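Translate sequence into structure tokens.
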Amino acid sequence: MDKIKKPIKSFHDLDVYQGTYKAMLVVFKKVLPKLPKEEEYDLKNQLRRSSKAIPRLIAEGHSKRHQKKGFQKYLDDAMAESNETIVSLSQARDLYPRHVDIDVCNELINSYDKASRQLYKLSLAWTKFSQRKP
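Result follows.
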């Protein structure tokens, strides 16, 4: 059964925004508190910043959707942050398996991998959409 497509009235309507926002909450509640103190200013800080940046970039980019290159830049930046978050979660999982929940990290890695693909597809779709003649 096909999913009924709703009109996109705001960034809140984008599945990729919703998914990355929910994933960010899980990172903050279930991963960051479990990382060891020695990672406070390195892995913990980087994971905190990159996971928060993704939904912010999507929201900011959506406000510039009328500018083809403006929106594209924000989508590209969000994809880069998503990929960076994947690496940080992989490092947390592999360096600190006694501290973090490996299953939670794997689920988050899958969520961010999906988000990166969604951002790429949105970028391609937006390019095609913006090239249409009115």
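Note: The chain has one domain: 27-129.
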